[in-house]
Amino acid sequence: MTVDESMPLEQVQDFFAHDLFAYEACGCRIVEASRGHAVTEFAIAPIHRNAMDAVMGGAIFTLADYALAVASNVGENPTVSISNTIEFLSPARGERLIATCDADKSGRNLGFYTVDVTDDLGTHVARMAATCFRR
To answer: What are the residue ranges spanned by the domains of the chain?
Structure first.
């Protein structure tokens, strides 16, 4: 199934709620969704923290990957990531993480995206570069 770019945000949210790990286990939510752009977030909870009380890298990656999934699939043929590189820049200091994904180039078969993750205080937590394949 494809996600039509004319869908209201609520329908896009319902569609991606089936991404159970991001949605249910991690608490990721979609704030904005359009072709080549998405914003996702989650409230930092104890489950997101590692043994050193910092937000776990896997939780940060999950949020970034969720934003990528939305940005690369809205208005496009079904798209999957084939390569991701993430750089962790600073520990999160706030109470919420926000991932903003934008298409750098969206082609017929390949898409290139950048995802920036910040906290609600404006701390730049991570940056992910991704290459995606369209079916």
So the answer is: 9-134
Neighbours of 13 (CB within 10 A): 16
pLDDT in tens, 66-92: 999 999 999 999 999 999 999 999 999
pTM for the whole structure: 0.96
User: Cα–Cα distance between 95 and 123 in angstroms, integer?
Assistant: 11
Fold of 9-134: Thiol Ester Dehydrase; Chain A (3.10.129)
Note the Cα 52 to chain centre separation in Å: 24
Sign of the torsion angle spanned by Cα atoms 30, 31, 32, 36? negative
Q: At 110, is the secondary structure helix, strand, or coil?
A: strand
